[in-house]
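Design job #97: recover the sequence.
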């Protein structure tokens, strides 16, 4: 989450005139994240999140994301629900951008996850994959192989090397390898694709909800798992925590068993998940608009994670036992 677009009181009042939410009690920007403009909105009807969609989000994809939230709730997962206007529509326009209001979820994002948090994340990720098996719509992953290459091609070499000497060359070599080796026949369906610690809420040590579905797409389930592996199982000093990784995968497999082809592909998928966030974070880090209320994430974290996975040739190198 972030704030790129300022919303005036007059603009907000005009937008809310189509809703039955009562008077505004509080309204403030949320600085976390890098994709959309997000605001915490409190009205007489309760607390909500107002999102203005910017940057990489295609307006044509928004019905997919919003319908997915409704589908997940119907299948028993907790996530925000889009709030309908009086005319039944959940998507409008604010400050020239597509915008929606979603319900607010109680819970806390765990910044330093423990082993038990990782196991519970694995369980809910597998439940997510099973719950979306009958979701009627597909959405290609715009940030898979071709998307990584497109972002990479737009980053000048000198700019990339400001973050890390030789970084652009390293990324190019890795992308060439991904083009040759990337698996295309793994079990697939709708995945979250961005389930970082700030997108999972906990209450009383249990997962209380998932948020931020605006990268959700159709792709390999195991790819979603290694995105979580990268986001949850490295310590602040970027040391890989094999105990957390074992718990994450064990939690996942307690709900949905991985196939042998998925297990075999995990090291390569983890490299792909690393290069995906490396190229997009580097691009965002180099192109934050002037005056934007946003905290860009350091891309060098994923350069280090990529280097780790490049040395892994078997899933058991992660300390995981699939027997």
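Job complete. Output follows.
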């Amino acid at each position: 989450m972030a704030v790129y677009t300022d919303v005036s009181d007059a603009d907000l009042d005009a937008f809310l005139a189509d809703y039955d939410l009562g008077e505004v009690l509080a309204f403030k920007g949320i600085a976390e994240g890098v994709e959309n403009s997000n605001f915490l909105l409190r009205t007489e009807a309760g607390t909500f999140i107002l999102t203005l969609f910017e940057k990489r989000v295609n307006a044509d994809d928004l019905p997919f994301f919003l319908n997915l939230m409704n589908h997940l709730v119907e299948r028993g997962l907790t996530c925000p629900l889009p709030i309908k206007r009086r005319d039944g529509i959940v998507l409008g326009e604010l400050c020239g951008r597509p915008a929606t209001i979603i319900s607010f979820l109680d819970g806390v994002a765990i910044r330093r996850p423990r082993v038990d948090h990782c196991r519970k994340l694995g369980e809910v990720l597998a439940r997510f994959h099973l719950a979306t098996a009958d979701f009627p719509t597909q959405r290609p992953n715009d940030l898979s192989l071709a998307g990584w290459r497109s972002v990479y091609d737009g980053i000048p070499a000198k700019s990339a090397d400001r973050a890390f000497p030789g970084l652009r060359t390293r990324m190019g070599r890795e992308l060439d390898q991904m083009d040759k080796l990337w698996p295309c026949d793994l079990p697939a369906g709708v995945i979250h694709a961005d389930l970082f610690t700030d997108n999972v809420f906990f209450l009383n040590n249990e997962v209380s909800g998932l948020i931020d579905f605006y990268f959700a797409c159709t792709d390999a389930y195991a790819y979603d798992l290694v995105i979580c592996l990268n986001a949850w199982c490295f310590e602040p000093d970027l040391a890989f925590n094999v105990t957390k990784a074992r718990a994450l995968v064990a939690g996942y497999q307690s709900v949905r068993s991985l196939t042998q082809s998925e297990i075999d592909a995990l090291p390569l998928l983890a490299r792909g998940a690393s290069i995906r966030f490396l190229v997009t974070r580097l691009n965002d880090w180099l192109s934050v608009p002037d005056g934007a209320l946003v905290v860009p994430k350091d891309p060098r974290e994923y350069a280090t994670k990529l280097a780790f996975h490049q040395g892994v040739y078997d899933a058991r190198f992660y300390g995981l036992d699939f027997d």
